[in-house]
Amino acid sequence: MINKTKRQMIPRVVKIPRKSYFWGSTSMAGPHKKNASVPMLHILRDYLSLGDKEREITRLLNNKLVNVDGKAIKEKKYPTGFMDLVTIPSMKKSYRILYDRLGRLTPVPERDENSNVKPRKVLNKFTVKGNKTMIVCHDGYNFISDNKTISTGDVVLFNVKEKKIDGTIKLQEGSKVFLTGGNHVGSVATVKSIEVSKSSSSNLISMEEGFATIEEYVFPIGNLKFNSIELKGGNAE
Asked: How crowded is the C-beta side of 117, counted as CA atoms within 13 Å?
């Protein structure tokens, strides 16, 4: 099994020096794709500086001191992706994985009021036995719901502590959204209009800020507030 890769070949969403060291970690199979995730080793060692050596991070994980979305993670190659909530209970600290303005995934200190909230975008839904609805989310999480008003493109607010849905953010005119791709990645904008495609191509979302993007890059956040991301170009050799 390949557990390392050359740093020059690591996906660009990972914000680590490319020339200082030869090897980097490779994400294992999990809730996020390899080209849209950062291995837990890099999050803890290179982003948060919770250890200088790989064995220190391994010890931290083996002692179940790190949670992702409320679940203890022991794998150093575990893939963390957009909107994941990384928590270190012993330090009383939580971090949200967000895109910065260069399209790189970055852990950002999370506000206390959002420390148990995991937003999940609905990618698909279909009817199952009992006339219930199966909801498929962006991070691979699936659940069955009786709520018929949840639509593709909406975001459900999952409480990782109580394991329940606290609310829904609709994708509609006037919605605040976080952009996950395109020229405005890492920005927050307001939906002006939604042009529904009559073909297999993506719906076009126009923003009040004067630009448009495809629906795949739009993640509704409603009234959720996130700390800003400061760009540090020196970390991307």
From this structure: 19
